[in-house]
Amino acid sequence: MRVVIAEDNVLLSSGLELLLAAKGFEVAAVAGDAPGFLAAVAEHRPDVTIVDVRLPPSFRDEGIRAAIRARRRSPGLPVLVLSQYVERQYAGELVSDGRGGVGYLLKDRVGRVSEFVDALRRVAAGGTVMDPEVIGQLLTRPAHDPIAALTPREREVLALMAEGHDNTTIGTRLVITDNAVHKHIGNIFTKLGLSPTDSGHRRVLAVLSYLSHE
């Protein structure tokens, strides 16, 4: 069973490589950043991947975003996230896309090697393995509901976004200019705490936030 690992900590990645080799896995590649991981997945077409959430250069969410991109390119690619952090924004998307095995384990809560190896095999076979702490954080609504911070006009704009309308149609429906629509959408993204790195992706996440609130 071929594995590709995305982990920038050399000691941890080396330890994983030795551990998996001893358990009969073939570690096809170890990448220290997102581009390297994506390239390795494309080259080796692994049976399962292990990905840390935070990778260079910013050490924020590069790893889990790379995992999502890899699954878009290779639908059903099994991904086991192994991290110290729960990245709620992208973890929800990774778990809910319904394509292939997925897991999310916290490094500090992996108690036994046998449990980790079993989790990796289950993910590779198409199963789901989630740390209870991760599930709890994904299901807990923040005390401050960001949707409640939207103005009535921003709610109208978001509702039309949820119906699948583009900016021009939204402007026509609400009798406002394209610039006004753009400004309202920018405010929505800001209030929902969505990253500015991918506006198309933010639009989907904003709609998901709206639908989960309704």
Give the key terms.
about 210 residues, alpha/beta, 6-stranded parallel β-sheet, 6 strands, about 55% helix, elongated
Task: Give a description of the structure.
Helices cover 53% and strands 13% of the residues. The mean pLDDT is 86. Helix 8 (167-174) packs across helix 9 (178-191). Strands 2-1-3-4-5-6 form a six-stranded parallel beta sheet, with helices on both faces. With 214 residues, the protein is α/β, with parallel strands linked by helices. It contains ten helices and six strands; from the N terminus they run E-H-E-H-E-H-E-H-E-H-E-H-H-H-H-H.
Topology diagram in text:
Layout: E1 2-6, H1 10-22, E2 26-31, H2 34-44, E3 48-51, H3 62-73, E4 79-83, H4 88-96, E5 102-106, H5 113-124, E6 128-130, H6 132-139, H7 152-162, H8 167-174, H9 178-191, H10 199-213
Parallel strand pairs: 1-2, 1-3, 3-4, 4-5, 5-6
Helix pairs in contact: 2-3, 3-4, 7-9, 7-10, 8-9
Short summary:
With 214 residues, the chain is of the alpha/beta class. The protein is built from 10 helices and 6 strands; from the N terminus they run βαβαβαβαβαβααααα.
Please write the string of helix (H) and strand (E) elements.
EHEHEHEHEHEHHHHH
Sheet with most strands: 6 strands, parallel
The number of E-state strands comes to 6
What is the end-to-end distance?
A: 43 Å
How is the largest sheet built, in terms of strand order? 2-1-3-4-5-6
Helix content: 40-55%
The computed structural class is alpha/beta
What integer value in Å does the Rg equal?
Answer: 19 Å
Average pLDDT number: 86
- Number of helical segments with 4 or more residues: 10
- How much strand? 5-15%
Unreliable residue runs? none
Shape estimate: elongated
